[in-house]
Specification:
By secondary structure, this protein is α+β, with helices and mostly antiparallel strands. The chain has helices at 19-51, 85-107, 113-134, 156-173; strands at 57-61, 64-71, 138-146, 149-150. The chain has one domain (24-171). The protein has a four-stranded antiparallel beta sheet. Strand 3 (138-146) and strand 4 form a beta hairpin. Helix 1 (19-51) crosses helix 3 and helix 3 packs antiparallel against helix 4. The longest helix is centred in the N-terminal third of the chain and has 33 residues, at 19-51. The protein starts with 18 loop residues before the first helix and ends in a 13-residue tail after the last helix.
Length: 186
């Protein structure tokens, strides 16, 4: 048993938590956010698949329709007509990128904006990865339009990826904060 008199004044009555434990807790919080994105994405896709037959749409408002479509390609249906090999390509790509993103989140877990952005991107990537493995294509259902101009259908995972990338760009473009009295780096 440690001699209480030998402990530093501020340590009496408290338990020191090793830095690795605090870092692990932060990592788990960020990964928890990614899991939440996956759950919201998959729940919304299950709901829309139960609500609509393939290709049918429901007008929700003047600029939004719900529609059930399957995208075997990437963003904006890139490679959607490539003959099937793209499914496996995007599965391997998403799995590899997801592992890399987890490593980045671990490295930056003590920060706020970067791991937030990476967690959103990770959740979106895994949500769409699940679709590719289970369905063979990504389930899209949000279909925005203005007059006769239509934006390609997308989903919650795509939205999380987009917000995550926007946050990363914002972090990179905003002025760096300098410590008190520190000179800005060139």
């Amino acid at each position: 048993m440690a001699n209480r008199a030998a402990m530093p004044e501020g340590a009496r009555g408290s338990v020191a938590i090793p830095a690795a434990v605090g870092s692990s807790r932060r990592l788990l919080r960020w990964l928890g956010l990614a899991v939440l994105v996956v759950l919201l994405d998959q729940a919304s896709k299950l709901w829309i698949a139960a609500l609509l037959p393939y290709g049918r749409s429901i007008r929700v408002g003047p600029i939004l329709d719900l529609v059930l479509v399957y995208n075997p390609g990437a963003a904006f249906s890139f490679l959607s007509d490539a003959g099937g090999w793209q499914r496996w390509f995007f599965i391997v790509l998403a799995a590899g990128v997801s592992v890399w993103i987890v490593a980045l989140i671990r490295r930056h877990a003590r920060e706020f904006l970067l791991p937030l952005a990476l967690s959103l991107i990770l959740g979106g990537a895994v949500g769409n990865l699940i679709d590719r493995v289970v369905v063979g294509a990504v389930v899209d259902f949000l279909y925005f339009h203005l007059g006769s101009h239509y934006w390609p259908a997308f989903n919650v995972a795509d939205s999380a990826i987009t917000v995550g990338v926007a946050l990363m760009l914002w972090q990179q473009l905003r002025p760096a904060r300098c410590g008190a009295g520190a000179a800005p780096q060139p």
